[in-house]
Specification:
Strand order of the largest sheet of chain A: 1-3-2-4-6-5-10-11-9-7-8
CATH class of the domain at 4-257 and 440-481 in chain A: Alpha Beta
CATH superfamily of the domain at 1-44 in chain B: Glu-tRNAGln amidotransferase C subunit, N-terminal domain
Strand order of the largest sheet of chain B: 1-2
Helix content of chain A: 25-40%
Radius of gyration of chain B: 22 Å
CATH topology of the domain at 1-44 in chain B: Histone, subunit A
Order of helices and strands of chain A: HHEHEHEHEHEEHEHEHHHHEHHEEH
CATH architecture of the domain at 4-257 and 440-481 in chain A: Alpha-Beta Complex
Structural class of chain B: mainly alpha
Shape of chain B: flat
Shape of chain A: globular
Distance between the termini of chain A: 21 Å
Structural class of chain A: alpha/beta
Largest sheet of chain A: 11 strands, mixed
Strand content of chain A: 5-15%
Oligomer: heterodimer
CATH architecture of the domain at 1-44 in chain B: Orthogonal Bundle
Strand content of chain B: under 5%
CATH class of the domain at 1-44 in chain B: Mainly Alpha
Number of helices of chain A: 15
Number of strands of chain B: 2
Number of strands of chain A: 11
Largest sheet of chain B: 2 strands, antiparallel
CATH superfamily of the domain at 4-257 and 440-481 in chain A: Amidase signature (AS) domain
Distance between the termini of chain B: 40 Å
Chain lengths: 486, 94
């Protein structure tokens, strides 16, 4: 069969189970696609052909015994912030350039238990700090829809790879929009689960109260299959909730009749591109035609504080988390120093890139004596108000819909010189992490052949509502089937 | 408000982060710009608001203190830049 790399998980699962194709055949197809596209897109930090083909053979054995999981034999790429045993995991940072984890992240263990085929690791902004992959210490990933533009970030490698069929799906991580914003820029589906829904064990920490692992994939059905595999309580992550995992495929109901959906005006921000606004309005009109009960006058007034809250809390947590890179236990170590302290300072000076250093500085400042209450505690208090507003809103609405990003994919280099402009790229996604709620970005239209994403959010642990609305919209439109013509 | 060179150096030393003179100059401007944006939070009345550290309701997750399996010493040390006698090796501290 030709061009197997173009198919979705659910299509391939049927073909694999019927033995119309083998996992080895499929894996070879995807690997050849990587070889064909990687010199243009640069989505991957590492590819492990021999490991992938061995895993494909094992998957074929399992499929022969008619004992398969929906993800069995299907190739996946993993963001390079998620630990893979024996496979280099770099965070796209010089400081971890040669780090080989002695263990698998829980999500990777789960994928392996399903006999998924792990192709390799994807590029990202260093330590997931950024919105374009331009902060990778290795190279920038390019947007397959227009190679002069960024794929978004920080999971830009994962999003670009799925968009250009270098993988059937991918995992990313989302601290302030790092799954959803690149999904929007690359025209794929990206879900940030509720905080506590997916284990963070083995996810290299950026901001522990905000980080979640999430899937990037070609449609909502695939998204539900991936969530069925990766969601759930994990003893190794005490912030994962012991709460039953539903069968997410049961939420794929093509009916939004009577669902109450709020459209908060605060998300149609100043500086938003006109075509993003009109595309979103059309998409919401479509849902209204389909019977959803839309309230165009919803309001979440504290949204305007979310950017500041995020850029205090995330760097504060990062400055504590990144203290572990001391040049002693693992990672880069600068030995040309006279004392332990000088060794640590030099190691971190050379090992961390400019954005990571900037955020460590910002976080350290916000946590330092004399500023702790004014910045850190103040931000935590405003976090309470933002979360409370969402809690109240979800008493009125089944879901809330906004744009995923105020703009389409921007040009490489366009925002690297302007810190606040770069930070504003995540203005619509940050509040979701602050509140800990789930949100998805799905393709909702195009402007000059560049994708625009719609963000759908629901109350904590109601991924089912999000998947239902996303699925219904997907059934009524064909945006998700469009491919870049590279 | 613009941060002083001394403040930048102080924060860097708290963070054990070596900075070049150019870094210090750049961060003075860039961090000051970001801090200016935080001024907006002063508009919010938080007098009777409790801080939120995390978004879920879990508190104090306990488990039994049981000895479990641990990683072999050689695997744990495999990434160490310097090691000796099955220990991480650092420069003289005292």
């Amino acid at each position: 069969m030709d061009k197997l790399y173009q198919f979705t998980i659910h299509e391939l699962n049927t073909l694999l189970r019927k033995r119309d194709i083998s996992s080895v055949e499929l894996t070879k197809s995807v690997l050849s696609r990587i070889n064909e596209m990687e010199n243009k897109v640069h989505a991957c930090v590492s590819i492990n052909e021999s490991i992938a083909l061995k895993q494909a053979e094992e998957a074929d054995n399992r499929l022969r015994n008619a004992d398969s999981d929906p993800l069995t034999g299907i190739p996946v790429l993993i963001k390079d912030v998620i630990c893979t045993k024996g496979i280099r995991t770099t965070c796209s940072s010089k400081i971890l350039e040669n780090f080989i984890p002695p263990y698998d992240a829980t999500v990777v263990e789960k994928l392996k238990a399903a006999n998924a085929v792990i192709l390799g690791k994807t590029n990202m902004d260093e330590f997931a700090m950024g919105s374009s992959t331009e902060h990778s210490a290795f190279f920038t990933t390019y947007n397959p829809w227009d190679l002069s533009r960024v794929p978004g970030g920080s999971s830009g490698g994962s999003a670009a790879a799925v968009a250009v069929d270098e993988s059937i799906y991918a995992l990313g991580s989302d601290t302030g929009g790092s799954v959803r914003q690149p999904a929007s820029f690359c025209g794929v589906v990206g879900l940030k689960p509720s905080y506590g829904r997916v284990s963070r064990y083995g996810l290299i920490a950026f901001a522990s109260s905000l980080d979640q692992i999430g899937p990037l994939c070609k449609d909502t059905t695939d998204c539900s299959l991936i969530m069925n595999c990766i969601a759930g309580h994990d003893k190794k992550d005490s912030t994962s909730l012991d709460y039953p995992v539903p069968d997410y495929t049961k939420s794929l109901i093509s009916n939004v009749k009577g669902l109450k959906i709020g459209i908060p005006q605060e998300y149609f921000v100043e500086g938003m591109q006109a075509e993003v606004r009109t595309t979103l309005e059309k998409a919401i009109n479509k849902l209204e035609e389909m019977g959803a009960d839309i309230d165009w006058q919803a309001s979440l007034p504290s949204t305007r504080y979310a950017l500041s809250v995020y850029y205090i809390l995330a760097p504060s947590e990062a400055s504590a988390n990144l203290a572990r890179y001391d040049g002693v236990k693992y990672g880069y170590s600068e030995q040309n120093a006279d004392s332990v302290i000088e060794m640590t300072e030099k190691t971190r000076q050379i090992g961390f890139g400019p954005e990571v250093k900037r955020r460590i500085m910002l976080g350290t400042y916000a946590l330092s004596a004399g500023y702790y209450d004014a910045y850190y505690v103040k931000a935590q208090k405003v976090r309470t108000l933002i979360k409370q507003e969402f809690d109240d809103a979800f008493k009125k609405y089944d879901a809330i819909i906004t744009p995923t990003s105020p703009t389409i994919a921007f040009k490489v280099g366009e925002k690297t010189g302007n810190l606040m402009q770069m930070y504003l790229s995540d203005v619509c996604t940050l509040p979701i992490n602050i509140a800990g709620i789930p949100a998805i970005s799905i393709p909702a239209g195009f402007s000059n052949d560049l994708p625009i994403g719609m963000q759908i959010m629901a109350k904590p642990f109601d991924e089912e509502m999000i998947l239902r609305i996303a699925y219904a919209y997907e059934q009524a439109t064909d945006w998700h089937t469009k491919k870049p013509s590279l | 408000m613009k941060l002083t060179t001394e403040q930048i150096k102080h924060i860097a030393s708290l963070a054990r982060l070596g900075l070049s003179d150019t870094d210090i100059k750049d961060y003075r401007t860039q961090l000051s710009e970001v801090l200016d944006n935080f001024e907006i939070l002063k508009q919010v009345d938080t007098a009777n608001v409790k801080p939120t550290a995390q978004s879920i309701t879990l508190q104090n997750v306990f488990r039994n203190d049981q000895v479990g399996e641990s990683y072999p010493q050689n695997e744990v040390l495999a990434n160490a830049p310097k090691q000796e006698d099955n220990c991480f090796k650092v420069k003289v501290i005292l």
